[in-house]
Amino acid sequence: MAPGGGEGRRNGEQQANGKNGGCVCGFPVCACAGAAAVASAASSADMDRVAVAATEGQIGAVNDESWVAVDLSDDLSGDGGDDGVAIEDRPVFRTEKIKGILLHPYRVLIFVRLIAFTLFVIWRISHRNPDALWLWVTSIAGEFWFGFSWLLDQLPKLNPINRVPDLTVLRQRFDRADGTSRLPGLDIFVTTADPFKEPILSTANSILSILAADYPVEKNTCYLSDDSGMLLTYEAMVEAAKFATVWVPFCRKHGIEPRGPESYFELKSHPYMGRSQEDFVNDRRRVRKEYDEFKARINGLEHDIKQRSDAYNAARGLKDGEPRATWMADGSQWEGTWVEPSENHRKGDHTGIVLVLVNHPSHSRQFGPPASADNPLDFSMVDTRLPMLVYVSREKRPGFNHEKKAGAMNALTRCSAVLTNSPFILNLDCDHYINNSQALRAGICFMLGRDSDTVAFVQFPQRFEGVDPTDLYANHNRIFFDGTLRALDGMQGPIYVGTGCLFRRITLYGFDPPRINVGGPCFPKLGGMFAKTKYEKPGLEMTTKAAVAKGKHGFLPLPKKSYGKSDAFVDSIPRASHPSPFANAAGDAGVVTDEATITEAVAVTTAAYEKKTGWGSNIGWVYGTVTEDVVTGYRMHIKGWRSRYCSIYPHAFIGTAPINLTERLYQVLRWSTGSLEIFFSRNNPLFGSTFLHPLQRVAYINITTYPFTAIFLIFYTTVPALSFVTGHFIVQRPTTMFYVYLAIVLGTLLILAVLEVKWAGVTVFEWFRNGQFWMTASCSAYLAAVCQVLVKVVFRRDISFKLTSKQPAGDEKKDPYADLYVVRWTWLMVTPIIIIMVNIVGSAVAFAKVLDGEWTHWLKVAGGVFFNFWVLFHLYPFAKGLLGRHGKTPVVVLVWWAFTFVITAVLYINIPHIHGPGGKHGHGALGRHAHGHHGGKLGAFEGEAYGWP
């Protein structure tokens, strides 16, 4: 069987399944024929009919027990030509190519700039500066690195595409008239670690938006992982579950958007989408009152828990020194972290907890009561069921490395497999809420469409609220999300960025894709070049229902011991790719939450469960780095899996940005350190498998090396200014060709930027703001990351980071952006401050030398001074963050700059021994050197300035 293309896949399926019936093993890609049981397709009983019914560009019919329509067409372009096509024959998503008028010049200019930059570097190498040879050598190395890193960033953007989900087709295919659905199950993971740094109200709003999302209620389960193990988080979720009984039906009745209550009630206008305007106004007023009471209860929880615990402990007559427990509302002791830490009840030392807050709903709609005196809300025509909600706090014990978020995600994966075992998993941070109720359906479109059985995950862009209108610290990062990730979708797919990502569960278990097609629409022949030609044949015991019931695990890609000692968990893996073929007639296996099942769910979250297993290495989220997200996605890509990018409007998910400059720098420090850790690990993309798309490998190399730019950038932001003082410059004498190369390099850069913002759908201002913060991050966080990782590599020291705080401390009513400008000192600010001072002093010295007569021509130094001010202009947001506040005029920044500039110039002129006698001798040469120096470094630096964010 040669699974590299669509025809080979069809022939193999027909040979494996036979003419008249599918294999009884129940897997879409037949395990008995030797293929891995991993494809997301129709149940195997329908595969033969799908293969026979499918025609070129069409989707075969499926029965009520199956939930994936398989597109067997070889056409992967999805040109979106749906005119005149019946809705049942249309794909659930379409692929739109970027207009040729933008894309073709974009590609040509990339290679034109590459040639011009190469000639420029050759010119620089052939024109030495013997007066300052060490500066010349260092500058050549920097310019070479800037060009190389620009190329790494640019090459993966050769084939950007847009994928658009078609929710109308999805509903037509999978939703039934009785309100039930054939859509696959979805487990949503929400992680939190500190209810004080991550506001508990924000977490509650995220949970409420998930419960209210437009997805089949019985197929949607929400898991909250609380790594703090605090009763505060649990009781907040209990309150959220109570309020959800009002909020969720209200959203369904009136089509509320967004479905996070805090964001909805902050809207200035409330567009009506329901049946009765008057009914809507009354319902909204009532729900708003309920929400205000809900917030009051949330804000008072900490005090209530402490007061309750003090009362229970006092009633027990505890003596001094005896541990004082934390008590739940039902009079039982909390098993997690206590308010007053004690043995087995402190941070990093507590038992595991799995509590079901909302039970799994029935499979038929349940309408609410009509309006009455006790219940003014009329939900008589509204389905009031809630999705299942589960609170999880994994066990933590001293002496165990709990692996932070990656460990929590792996524990959730095992726990959810025991309870619900949905074939797809969506992970969200606790500060990200569902802004578009259709987001879950949009993501599923990319898992159910044509050729989707090889898709490991679907990545959504990150969007943020609470960002000032000017986006001073580039929190939105649109160049990365809408530029880089969209472009990678035209290769093997976007990288995994940690949140807002929809996974195929079995990819986390170490399975290989059913076939390899790394070429994509840009290089389709690569799919056949790297196609897998054989599979390891699994045990035949998997071919019967009885064998599955007995827990035979011969099909696993790794030995059973790699998954841990839980038979219940390992038995769940065969059914992880789709609803079990041995389920009930409705196609739903049912969820059991009895005491034995909950006990097993707790057992798979124990601290010792992963000992001597493959978790964190070959299974689940990968350990050993602070950027477990990038590595986890990378490990899937090198197996041949693909990913897709899903950007919809209104935005799918919205999170909370870091609240000030300090927190933003720490966030970037954590990301850049993790990137370098990957480079110095066995996950270095240079050594990835041949299943990795060539340009995808280039993208991963860029991701893991971009912080090294800080080393050369520090040189280029300080030496030009110091050259005015020392008189030693990089370039001795520029020529006409030098200016030609420089003009081409800069001109193509600007044109490329314009074309990129056009096809990416961002603005020039966002592109420039991204460049400004890139300068700040490079001079601070990137440089610190390089130092930290080098220390780790040389001295074998682990790197620790604090959790990014997103809890505002200022008065948001007076100024919602006040906390963005609160100065919280950190050592990361030292280097940018030094660079600012050096450039101000250098410009002042150049100005003084002209006034003093050492340099008689302004044009001789204009280039160098312009570059100094160019550096200062890019660091302006940093300076404003240090000295200014939102709403205040930034004049204070300009005043400080001007004051330093004038004082330096005056001192230079009035202290003769600084510059010595005979200043006018050789002023022409110095001027020429300054001007040439500006040209060389500006051309090289601009090539990188707006590359990787």
TrEMBL record:
The keyword Zinc-finger does not apply. GO terms for cellular component: Golgi membrane. It is found in: Golgi apparatus membrane. UDP-alpha-D-glucose binds at residues 197-198, 227, 404. The chain crosses the membrane at residues 106-125, 132-152, 706-731, 738-761, 773-795, 822-846, 858-879, 891-911. GO terms for molecular function: glycosyltransferase activity. PANTHER family: X-BOX TRANSCRIPTION FACTOR-RELATED. This is Cellulose synthase-like F6. It comes from Urochloa decumbens.
